[in-house]
Specification:
globular, binds cobalt (II) ion
């Protein structure tokens, strides 16, 4: 078997976004600006309402996809095309912003824990100006698979032990797994050879292909190969997301919530937003 080894390991950077939501930026930081096709990964996790209550009021997106996966807490989203929905714990919203929309993402709770991830995935040039589209699923629609003793995997995108997750995106063929490992358990998974891939540990610790453990709040970029093999090393169990996608290998022109191929397209996005064409 052709095992993927650990490339570089990154620690997230504390930051704030939206109207002052405190979060940890793991991809999209100076250390790791992107990992084609992934543009950004934020982890938010706090039980202090003042860290999240102001939420993310109206803001635009164009040219890529935002994936919100909630672990705890509830988030209400609403866009300027009349779409809205409530994300509950365990829900995922896979939003293809395409040619653009303006939306808000606001906590719908006054207290308690808020925890989850937002991942940005690029779109190829031919889809950047497509119509906005949502794939949104509650926790009951995301299958859990037990591929090995002590291992439970929530399959958001991709396939584990013959079970497919609900998300489809042929452009990047993404894999998005939430992996729960009991102490001492082992999980192996085959990824498409050409995909870029990472593991982000959000609780506990795990060793990849027998290397030094990757600790909580660390992201390991996986090297080339196919099979990912992880051993849970922490007492009390380990939780991590395993994410992979086919790289687009296109020029990236990026400005805040706009991700296009050229600077001219960025200027056009700003003009279109000003003119109310989102
Ligand atoms: Co947004």
């Amino acid at each position: 078997m052709n095992h993927r080894t650990v490339g570089r390991v990154f620690r997230g950077m504390p930051t704030s976004d939206g109207a002052g939501v405190r979060l940890t930026r793991v991809i999209g930081s100076p250390q790791l600006p992107d990992l084609d096709p992934f543009l950004l990964l934020d982890e938010f996790g706090t039980d202090r309402p003042e860290d999240y209550i102001a939420g993310f009021p109206d803001h635009p997106h164009r040219g890529f996809e935002t994936v919100t996966y909630m672990l705890d807490g509830r988030m209400r989203h609403r866009d300027n095309h009349g779409n809205s929905g409530l994300l509950v714990p365990g829900a995922v919203q896979w939003m293809s912003a395409g040619r653009g929309l303006v939306h808000s993402e606001m906590p719908e709770q006054q207290e308690g824990r808020m925890r989850g991830f937002q991942l940005w995935i690029n779109l190829p040039a031919r889809l950047k100006m497509s119509e906005p589209r949502y794939q949104e699923y509650g926790p009951e629609r995301i299958p859990t698979v037990n591929p090995a003793p002590g291992v439970a995997v929530k399959v958001i995108a991709g396939e584990v032990a013959g079970v497919r997750g609900p998300i489809e995106q042929p452009a990047t063929e993404p894999v998005y797994l939430d992996v729960h490992l009991e102490t001492g358990s082992t999980f192996t998974h085959v990824l498409p050879h050409a995909h870029n891939a990472f593991l982000y540990v959000y609780q506990g610790a795990l060793a990849i292909a027998g290397a030094m453990p990757v600790l909580a709040q660390q992201l390991a970029v996986l090297g080339p190969g196919e099979t990912v093999a992880v051993d849970a090393t922490a007492t009390g169990g380990t939780r991590a997301i395993l994410v992979a996608g086919r790289p687009l290998r296109e020029p990236v022109a990026r400005h805040g919530p706009f991700v296009m191929n050229t600077r001219e397209e960025i200027l056009q996005a700003m003009e279109d937003l000003r003119a109310g064409r989102f």
